[in-house]
Every structure is written in C-alpha cells, then in structure tokens.
Amino acid sequence: METVHTSAIDRRTIDAVKDSVPIEEYAAEFVQLRQSGNEYRGCCPVHGGSNPHSFVVYPEDGRFYCFSCQESGDVLDLCRRLEGHAELWTAMLSLSERYHVELPQRPESWFNRQDEKAKVRKQVQEVLTRSYQRRFFRVYGDVILEGITDPTEREEEARSLFDGFYRVARHAARTRMARNA
Questions:
Q1: Whether 88 contacts 107, CB under 8 Å
Q2: Beta-ladder partners of 35
Q3: pTM of the prediction?
Q4: CB neighbours of 49 closer than 8 A, spacing ≥ 6?
Q5: Of the candidates 63, 24, 31, 35, which has an alpha carbon nearest to the alpha carbon of residue 50?
Q6: Phi, psi angles (nearest 5°) of residue 169
Q7: Which of 48, 62, 80, 153 is most buried (CB neighbours < 10 A)?
C-alpha cells in the first residue's frame, strides 16, 4: 500500500474514525470471521483468497494482516482497499457515515482567522493592482498619448487610458500573488 500523507487531514479526525469503528465489525461486513483467541480469522477480502486462516484481524491493536497477499493496516487502510478509495479522506467519510462517527469540527476562531486573512489578501491585491496600474501608465502612457496636442483631449484620454489599465493591472497582481503563495 502506498504511503498516505496526512498533513492535510487533521490527526484528530483520523483518530476519531479509527477509535470509533471496530475493525472486526467492519471486516465482518465483507468476510465471515471466526474468533480464535484474541483475534479473528477468515478468507482475505482484499485479494479474495479462499484460505480461511490467511486473513487475521487484531481488534486490540485495530489492525489486520493477510499472510497470503501481505496486505496490512488499520480500518482506514482496509476501507480504502475494499471500497476502492483513492484518497484517505474519502475512506474516512465513508466510515464516519456508516458508523455515525461525528468528526471533529474546526473552532469558530479558525473561520474568523480565515476571514481576516481573506480581507488582508484583498487589500494587498488592490494596493498591488494600483501600483501596476501606475507603472503601466508611466511606461505606455506617453507613447500612446504623444500624438494628441489638445490639452483637454489629452487629459481626458489620459484618464480613460489610466482607468483602462486597471483590468490588466489586476490580472498582473493576481498572477504575482498566486506565484508567491
């Protein structure tokens, strides 16, 4: 099984699912298990084997192992294999829905901080946009306006040109911020 990076998923959420879903109960949905001491044995549901002793579930550890296909892991790994989940979080959602596990929620302060950060990003983008707008006007304005001799017409055209640079400047600001994020 490939390594799953859990940095994007809160460890509390993973633990909540693993602690709430008994692996022997989940495995029993796919294969008939029989108790053997402190463990359960059956045919491997991962590779579809027929040996009733190859697949072992260790409830105390919350782990499984197949002696035939060498697959092992916890209830989330088993869910990913049996239900074909490509991502850990989809397996977590599947198990949490099936076993009515309430997943930890982010605190209100987290959402407030995200709102604050969005406001600051918007302000920075506006300042950067206005800076680019002035820069574009300084670089290209004289060249574009050089043929206009009437001062009133030149001033009107300059204002229109300056305002016209806003969209290009906003795009440049967004690109720069995305590149630096």
A1: no
A2: 40
A3: 0.57
A4: 43, 55, 66, 68, 69
A5: 31
A6: -65, -40
A7: 80
CATH match of 11-98 with 3.90.580.10: yes
pLDDT in tens, 112-150: 898 999 999 999 999 999 999 999 999 999 898 998 899
- DSSP code of 47? T
Residue 62: the pLDDT is 95
- The Cα–Cα gap between 165 and 138 comes to 11
Instruction: Work out whether the CA dihedral 65, 66, 70, 76 comes out positive or negative.
Output: negative
Q: In terms of DSSP bridges, do strands 55-58 and 34-36 run parallel, antiparallel, or are they unpaired?
A: unpaired
Residue listed under structure tokens 């002696």: 67
3-14 b/e with 16+ CB inside 10 Å = b?
eeeeeeeeeebb
What's the residue count for the chain?
181
**How far is Cα 64 from Cα 125, in angstroms, rounded to an integer?**
51
Distance, in Å, from the CA atom of 137 to the CA atom of 81, rounded to the nearest integer, reads 59
Location of structure tokens 């991962």: 46
Domain ranges of the chain: 11-98, 108-180
Q: How far apart, in whole angstroms, are the C-alpha atoms of residue 26 and residue 159?
A: 69
- In sign, the C-alpha dihedral spanning 44, 6, 21, 74 is positive
